[in-house]
Design goal:
The structure is a homodimer of 286-residue chains.
Chain A: E1 3-5, E2 11-13, H1 16-27, E3 31-34, H2 38-43, H3 50-64, E4 70-73, H4 75-79, H5 82-98, E5 102-109, H6 113-120, E6 133-136, H7 146-155, E7 158-164, H8 171-174, H9 184-195, E8 205-209, E9 227-230, H10 239-246, E10 253-257, H11 259-262, H12 268-282
């Protein structure tokens, strides 16, 4: 973990929010998903097994860990291959961090109490699958994520809480209204904003908001932390649309793309060029 | 997977809903959680590592796989130990099924599209961590779970969708109201009910409703499938309270207990007696 020292010379952690801001300043705001979908493995001429997975992930790391701010492995595609898939995921995360990228584990975990705390152990630098940040899901109520918030604080890690996604059925839950009148998604955003009160706009707890929403139906002005925006390169998820949705937001916007980049592999230069072109197109949004 | 044949002699799967009903008829309605929490490992004199995890899980399997209807490993406590933890989880699930229990993976996964499909591969008998059923989370909208519903149908597996949990903050999301007036939890229950229309009351898609809710603030009369009720043995989660909450429901009620049983280990007979006593106390609720 990155460390510095406080006024008394004791080592202190640089928070995830600060590290993310630094990395994005240096490398641009692009997050690239590592999604070894069976069809992508096939397109790259790889077998749909742990060995194919390893070749796929190693190539993405070699191409991009030194270039993009954040790499986001999708846990589901590694879990498909059981413990051997998780072994590959462990190597992937370690190699990505060693190469200079921050690693955001896309796992959407959500539980209560000691179970939630166990999931949040991914933020512990001593975990075999240690990562810088992870996505979490608030279906059990935002308060149920408290053990993960504590872990993020203790380890200098980050969280991205699902708030408002752009899949067509997302609104059923996310736009339902609470007794206070605001939507579930807005409640999540407000709760995250309260956590970031002392560290805005570079708080370490962020939210997930889809890049392809037609319009932003939540208010993020008081969020105080990063926004992961998946769907870049998909229908409607382009830099112009992102500016329209999020223009003026002072926190870090982290647009994420997976297949739009990955389809250029396994050629290393083609992967790098695709990521560079997208990062450049994104430049002005942050 | 259990298989039989249809009228034309072709092999067909027995659905999860039917298998669950059979198992519960034979063994009583108890589900025992396999939650190797660090404090439980310590209480059993085991190290908090993959070897301790393996000893813990093997003991629970040896004691209970031949006795209880369902064993429910909590993924988080295995994930804590990385790929070696998942190796133990794979062995645990296989041994539990070989011993005659149904295995419900408590993982609360939720995503969209091909990512959700990848998580649902746990229901594929060919997966290294093949299970009979898994818990899923609908924060991205019930429709986002469609790939898991398809997988459950294809493989004869089961799903338990988070609906109404009894942790204090659960209502923030689950009791929020949709534009049609019903709560998020009720919408989930109604959607599950529609899926089970042709197989009620033994549908293969169930829901999770906390055993310790003060009162049942949703209507499950049209659910048509099983209800997993975690929290048995915890404050208020006793058979009398369960009868009050769910009395008269025609589907399978599956109360679940973890520490209330596990604290009797590692002695095999003590574990068996604790589970038998609880199953007997539950007897009349189904």
């Amino acid at each position: 973990m990155t460390a510095t020292s406080d006024e008394a010379g004791r080592p202190t952690q640089v928070t995830f929010g600060i590290r993310l801001r630094e990395r994005v300043s240096q490398r641009g705001p692009l997050c690239v998903g590592i999604d070894p979908h069976p069809s992508l493995l096939e397109a790259w001429g790889l077998a749909d097994d742990a060995r194919g997975l390893d070749a796929f992930a190693s190539t993405v790391i070699e191409a991009l860990a030194g270039q993009v701010a954040v790499l986001k492995p999708q846990s589901a595609f590694f879990e498909r291959h059981g413990s051997s898939g998780i072994t590959v995921l462990e190597r992937t995360a370690a190699a990505a961090r060693a190469g200079g990228a921050l690693v955001l584990l896309d796992a959407k975990r959500g539980d209560i109490g000691s179970t939630m705390a166990a999931y949040a152990d991914y933020l512990d630098p001593g975990h075999p699958l240690a990562v810088d940040a992870m996505t979490v899901s608030p279906y059990l109520g935002f308060g149920s994520l408290a053990p993960a918030v504590s872990a993020a604080k203790a380890y200098g890690g980050g969280l991205f809480v699902l708030a408002r996604t752009s899949n067509p059925e997302g609104g059923e839950v996310q736009l339902a209204g609470s007794s206070t009148g605001s939507s579930v998604a807005q409640q999540v955003i407000d709760a995250v904003g309260a956590l970031n009160a002392d560290s805005r706009p570079d708080g370490s707890v962020g939210v997930v908001i889809g890049a392809t929403l037609q319009r932003l139906d939540v208010d993020i002005s008081m969020l105080g932390g990063p926004v992961l925006c998946p769907g870049l390169g998909a229908q409607g998820g382009d830099p112009v649309h992102l500016r329209r949705l999020f223009g003026g937001y002072e926190g870090v916007l982290l647009p994420s793309s997976s297949r739009e980049i990955l389809r250029h592999g396994p050629d290393l230069d083609a992967l790098r060029s695709a990521a560079a072109a997208m990062a450049e197109a994104l430049g002005p949004i942050v």
